[in-house]
Protein: MoaD/ThiS family protein
Organism: Biomaibacter acetigenes
Amino acid sequence: MKVMFFGYIRDITGAKETSMQGPTNLKQLLHKLCDIYGKNLKSRVFDNDDIGREVIILINGRNAAFTGGAETTLSEDDEISIFPVMAGG
């Protein structure tokens, strides 16, 4: 699967995108990414063992919050986009 990083998430990972194989749900994918990119990423993408409030994660363009959250099933041809929540004024 293809994972794309945006905003300060890209700064944390030092990568625009990466490919992953193996995870069958979003939680597994996020844990694998945190193993690679470290605790700074983990503090942004997780709140306990659920998706944190600092990120929006899209799976094939659909917000994971509406597809099952961290338990969303993934397949090898999915595209996952991880965005920081932005505020403005």
